[in-house]
């Protein structure tokens, strides 16, 4: 959908297909449906592309953003702030894989190499997400439920190594196809990523090959090195923010809008999300121009005042004048009055209060607080009113759709940071400093603040210092709204050096999702074998091996991230 003008009616159809094609058995059972033997391969594409975009965003903007401390929640925060996770099923991902497998089949039957390559690319991305999130999973025997035999009904779990190797081989195969394919068989509006642009798909595929090659850099370094160098030598990969792989939103209903669109829940979900101090503080220190794009100044700023005869003002001040009886305004009132030019403050005396409050314009929530809604002496804790003394996300995140509101799947910024890390590892990948700077520039361009690049890149802690730690930390910032990648990098490298807060049940961050009830109930023998291959860590805490602190193959033996 990037740089593509598609009519609203087509987009509504695209999003409706996400629910309409998840289970191909429904097509077989529906007397009014289309026969699988006559299915148009173009019609299968948007189900997969939209579903993947929504899933990645919902992970990277919600609970995984809490894990990597991009955001914290001050309500309904257990899963977000404290990793209070239960069994998590992967049926949504495998539903997309079934549709995708049918697309590959129909592409072969109709002699459409373009659609086959799209299917191989999306298969790689989806299986990549599954194994990144859970660990071992059905792969070689997956998606064969229509075939006879118990081994197809209850598929074996393949090791992560087998899955990652398969992903890389499928991406290489797709890349070869895209190198010579044309888009003659494509109906452009159903390719909601690129409108049938073969070159863009080729760059996407090769960029994913960079991602998954680097994922293996600690476990199979020779394979990682050759994979990266192959793509670099081809010169075919995402190299500008205009080529980011993104998905727009329609904004017509809750299901096709940005997840925190205030028009569909009166702003409840939006108000719970706050920037984490772990992310906000270094951004403020380095005068990061993305701060104003992502976050809003506090509605009411604390002012230190040692002449005050009480510990704190009992009420807020508007333009310096105490507002008798008014402890706080509602969110809507604050937004309207601040837009009209009013300034709201409260004074406090640190000598009488006994400690200092955060008096900055931007205030985040520290990770893992026991009572996050009370942070910075909020006078209205709980869910009735927002915390007037902590920043919210920028107002754009209230909207249902906007030019900045996109599901971001992979970006030029991520690619350049991968190449910077590769160069620092000694791969033939070009100049590490140039890639690092290009990664930052691409992110600033994505968020509309590229004009500030020259000032930002010379900040003492931003200026290139030749360390992988710095590269990953800037990549972590740039992964805003795609926190899954930041989590996967953290597990692989230990950077940034994230620590959980006081309410976390364990003193380290989680490293995987917990296998879900469907597998435990219906494929117990196979999931038990996979669970037994997990490395149980000192943070098991009586939960059994199938917990979020057990290590999968990708981190076993690496001493990472802890």
TrEMBL record:
InterPro entries: SusD-like_2 (IPR041662), TPR-like_helical_dom_sf (IPR011990). Gene3D superfamilies: 1.25.40.390. It comes from the Bacteria. It holds the Pfam family SusD-like_2. This is Starch-binding associating with outer membrane. It comes from Algoriphagus alkaliphilus.
């Amino acid at each position: 959908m990037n740089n593509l003008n598609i009519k609203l009616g087509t987009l509504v159809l695209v999003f409706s297909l996400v629910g309409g094609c998840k289970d191909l058995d429904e097509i077989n059972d529906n007397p009014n449906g289309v026969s699988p033997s006559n299915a148009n391969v173009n019609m299968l594409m948007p189900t997969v592309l939209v579903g993947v975009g929504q899933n990645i965003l919902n992970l990277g903007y919600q609970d995984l953003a809490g894990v990597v401390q991009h955001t914290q929640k001050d309500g309904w925060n257990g899963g977000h702030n404290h990793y209070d996770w239960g069994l998590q099923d992967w049926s949504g991902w495998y539903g997309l894989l079934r549709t995708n497998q049918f697309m590959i089949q129909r592409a072969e039957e109709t002699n459409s190499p373009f659609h086959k390559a799209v299917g191989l690319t999306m298969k790689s991305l989806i299986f990549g997400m599954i194994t990144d999130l859970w660990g071992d999973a059905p792969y070689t025997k997956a998606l064969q439920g229509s075939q006879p035999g118990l081994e197809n009904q209850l598929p074996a779990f393949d090791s992560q190594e087998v899955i990652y190797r398969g992903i890389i081989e499928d991406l290489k195969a797709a890349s070869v196809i895209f190198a010579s394919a044309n888009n003659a068989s494509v109906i452009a509006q159903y390719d909601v990523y690129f409108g049938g642009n073969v070159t863009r798909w080729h760059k996407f595929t090769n960029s994913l090959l960079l991602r998954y090659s680097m994922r293996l850099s600690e476990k199979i370094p020779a394979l990682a090195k050759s994979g990266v160098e192959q793509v670099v030598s081809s010169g075919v990969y995402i190299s500008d923010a205009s080529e980011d792989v993104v998905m727009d939103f329609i904004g017509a209903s809750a299901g096709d809008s940005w997840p925190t669109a205030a028009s569909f829940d009166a702003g409840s979900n939006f108000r719970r999300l706050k920037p984490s101090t772990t992310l906000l503080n270094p951004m403020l220190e380095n005068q990061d121009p993305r701060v104003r794009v992502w976050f809003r100044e506090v509605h009411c700023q604390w002012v230190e005042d040692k002449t005050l005869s009480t510990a704190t003002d009992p009420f807020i001040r508007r333009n310096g004048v105490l507002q008798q009886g008014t402890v706080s305004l509602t969110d809507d009132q604050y937004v309207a009055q601040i837009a009209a030019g009013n300034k709201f403050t409260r004074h406090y005396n640190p000598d009488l209060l006994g400690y200092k409050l955060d008096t900055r314009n931007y205030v985040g929530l520290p990770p893992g607080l026991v009572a996050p809604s009370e942070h910075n002496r909020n006078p209205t804790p709980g869910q009735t009113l927002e915390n007037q003394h902590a920043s919210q996300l920028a107002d754009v995140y209230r909207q249902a759709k906007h030019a900045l509101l996109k599901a971001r799947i992979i970006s030029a910024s991520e690619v350049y940071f991968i190449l910077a890390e590769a160069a620092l590892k000694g791969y033939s990948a070009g100049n590490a400093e140039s890639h690092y700077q290009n990664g930052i520039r691409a992110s600033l361009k994505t968020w509309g603040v590229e004009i500030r690049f020259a000032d930002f890149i010379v900040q003492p802690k931003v200026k290139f210092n030749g360390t992988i730690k710095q590269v990953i930390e800037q990549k972590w910032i740039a992964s805003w709204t795609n926190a899954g990648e930041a989590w996967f990098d953290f597990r692989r490298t230990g950077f940034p050096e994230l620590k959980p807060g006081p309410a976390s049940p364990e003193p380290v961050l989680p490293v995987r999702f917990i296998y879900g009830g469907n597998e435990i109930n219906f494929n117990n023998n196979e999931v038990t074998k996979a669970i037994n291959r997990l490395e149980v860590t000192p943070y098991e805490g009586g939960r059994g091996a199938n917990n979020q602190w057990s290590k999968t193959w990708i981190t076993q033996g690496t001493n990472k991230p802890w």
